């Protein structure tokens, strides 16, 4: 087991380096535009552009640049000439006065974390009961209705769902004034006000995912209930309630846990970008949208790489957790 | 085999958000086609979805005709008279514009109809590209195993570790920067052009991985089967074994997975358009919703119609995908 | 010598210095429009320029901003929103009373500038008893104004305009050179600026090349003439860039809250908040501003201007700062809000769509004329809102500005291609034929053009509409939507990168004179490789010569005539499509009695008060 964990951790580390390589390649090698010119912006003379090129070492061999980049991200490597200050140096933004990308990300992280955690709680609270009941009452009218409804939620683009929700329920422009509307997170100065401002975004972000999870829980439950041990439990005369909750649900939830880990990772990594931009929540995703508008490649690059960290780490946690939970895994 | 190896064969390793469908069902899907069609037919909702998609394809092809028939103006025609005379804000459904007009006086109905084109073109081309790429890499890695497998599988791991929506927006931005400085922008030395090309490219690049994993898992089990051994023993070439013996047995899971991919790609394209890195020079639903965002509180019609079009299209594909999956896997059948 | 010019960074609403006037005739003979206020704006939305008689003393006010000021340092301040702050915190030689449209009011100066008969000496008398805010707390003298002007040549002060107008001051060039050679050596002495006594400031000019004495005096109504205490500022000015911006000393009725020991601004968090409190050293006896409010907080970062506007209208906040409400909220405000909640002062200047005159296809004057003739400028104007947000422009100098009537008035110059506000496709076809396109439409590779514009409305809408208009003429347009500032910094202000069409540019003159209205955006030698504001890159010998001549003309009417002629000449070359003379909608909550400063087209905080219960 320990060997397995060590191997997974090592692989995760290697994966991070590989990912940074890919990200580096995308943002340094793919675009045709000149990074020195992009950075210099307006008002820069040819000499200044040249200066930036030298400062950032853009004329150095690609491998050297990549080495510096990876060094700055992962190791305490410092290089005053080229402005590298590791570890965790993701470079500097072009448009925010050369502010370090990592600083910008940490500024934005709390809003994203709050958005994701709240919606995870919400979607589990919706999905698990619905999934279980649908599985138990399989083929009932209720089962069919919820499954088709859930498919509709899966099919709705989340940003559109957000707009519709705002149109119906926002306290400033809604048909009925219930929930704080766009941008209310920015105005909220207390924690409870922040929670209030998140209610609508949580529901919108949770809607589609809850639908997916409900369907998944249902199919897992159906499978679990056909397993021998559930039949045995039933045969032993345990109450149906106990059979379902204690035995079937437990085994059905094992894969859900892993799925959840991956989804949380990917959402924290910035995939909540659509919800954040509809509700104007100053999170990682919203920052990406700004960065896109300004073609602030170093910032986008930093955010993508940072997001990859989340995904890799959550993958790692999930793998290890899975090894514990599922005895069938061999290592 | 280690845990990740186990997982990738039994469930989507990427999380439900991106796949959302239990792919384990695909593995056992080897029922004959006739039986499959029979089962599929039973699902009325799926049939309705199929009809809807057929109509949508027709509408996309015959968009000019339909717009004419309804008497709506050209999608790019700007009718300033249709705007509010005093504030030039968009106006709602009227006799001249049955779905209302947008912020610069263009007809929402006709743009919604034309918008089907971008959605469908992107949906089918990106799905086809991603599927073919997934099949090729999955076959190579599953069939040859060893180093080929290691390299491909690890590359897939790397790609899956990158947040795909951010990666896609980043790619799209990187491929569009510098479009006016003579180079015309683009990626890979201008091979990928900004616009529709970039969108299809980034969606394909970030979507082929799941298909590759599924195909690989299937190939790994099939290649040990007797009929493959037999072919090998009779001296058949690798190519022959792959194309004659293995590929035909993969049809079912590939079809199922591709059908799952289509609605995702449509939502994906809409999301990119919404974020401002999608198709800009043709009407697209995501773009329309994006444009409607600043005015949604007043101009409900502008966000409603493209949104509903998107919802119905994706739903139709999902219903079909669902039914395909059920039909090919007797175990989770609902009826 | 023309040092690097600074382009107007019209960040959506964060527009640089406007200079505006209501549509009053510039001379007595024209009495038709006097007192009618802003042209095209109904009575109920006319800007209020005086506090109510029973204005209430005290209270605190909250204003919302989308962006931040550019520089707190009065030597560098350049944005409209910065001027809203400097108007309340600084006392320049001259300042603008809310309804000043013709001429600034003496502020620190005790009376108007005296210009010698030869036009080469400007003398200002200063008021006595004006004091700096803590921690400096001493009386202002003429030496503080001299220092304030001299320090603007320091590279670290980042002033963007002074060299364009002040370079005829005796000793300016030498001082500028000295500062460039030794940027951290403190402000260089300018021989032409002298202080005969503590309350007299004298400025000597060389024979004018770029600006006459009248123009220089006008320029001193900008915050650069607000006094700066040398003994306090020199250590900050010895840095490059200077840190005085974080230690600005006020002279006006308000000051940014600061540390009483060091003077460091504690009330300013860039991008977040500006907190103004009363300046304890301000003596109302020396000032005409009433300064009713006790405290003003400007909250920044409200980039979602629709929500911010609704907050204000509903009373959750009190005043709009640097952004106009988007048109759909404007509609709500106009239809539903109480009287005076919406006011529409005019913004001097123009928005135009620049056609790149240096490159095909728009190096051909006939093709440009065709484009102008074809453009439906009313549809363009509608992208920013209806008639309320402005007039369809027919030339460049905006209504009420000197040279407006001379440049063509509301009717426009006598040019067929600018006549129809909704476009004249037949005439456009004629011009296309003249350019060699038999069909009257553009044909061939030459018609594939690139356009770089905004990625958010309303700029994006303007671009889309214009794109459609170009396509009607046969062009194939590759439209690249980008962030507004990127549009300038990366594309439109960098001639080498400049696309054929820049649909979202606009120009606001630095101060009240037709010269800054026209010479920066159309003078050929001003085309700058990295920092260009002549977006059409017009370099026409005729226009250049006319501009050079007009600069040296003295006398108000004479200048209006000369620059009106330049305006007509520029219009006749069709380098751009001028499409709007804009109003800048301001909104406030019901409990505020806001007063508009017409010169800055923004709220004047020193005259605004809260309504009583």
Helix/strand-derived class of chain A? mainly alpha
Q: pLDDT average of chain A, as an integer?
A: 82
Supply the number of helical segments of chain A: 14
Helix content of chain A: over 70%
**Mind describing the biggest β-sheet of chain A?**
2 strands, antiparallel
How many separate helices of chain B? 15
Annotation, overall tally of beta strands of chain A: 2
Shape of chain B: elongated
Structure description:
The complex is a heterotrimer of chains A (331), B (335) and C (613). Chain A has helices at residues 2-29, 35-40, 46-55, 62-74, 101-136, 141-155, 158-169, 184-187, 191-225, 228-235, 240-271, 273-279, 284-293, 297-325, and strands at residues 78-79, 84-85. Chain A is mainly α and 331 residues long. Chain A has a two-stranded antiparallel sheet with strand order 1-2. In chain A, a hairpin with a 4-residue loop joins strand 1 (78-79) and strand 2. The relative contact order of chain A is 0.13. Chain B has 335 residues and is an all-alpha fold. Chain B has helices at residues 3-10, 24-27, 33-42, 44-61, 63-70, 108-144, 146-160, 164-174, 196-205, 208-222, 226-233, 238-246, 251-274, 285-292, 300-328. In chain B, 58% of the residues are buried. With 613 residues, chain C is α+β, with helices and mostly antiparallel strands. Chain C is built from 17 helices and 24 strands. In chain C, helix 15 packs antiparallel against helix 16 (541-551) and helix 15 packs parallel to helix 17. Chain C is globular, with a radius of gyration of 24 Å. Residues 1-35 of chain C have low confidence and may be disordered. Chains in contact: A-B, A-C, B-C. At the A-C interface, loops of A face helix 7 and helix 14 of C.
Question: How would you describe this structure in keywords?
Answer:
heterotrimer, B: mainly alpha, 15 helices, 0% strand, elongated, disordered N terminus, C: alpha+beta, six-stranded mixed sheet, four-stranded antiparallel sheet, 15% strand
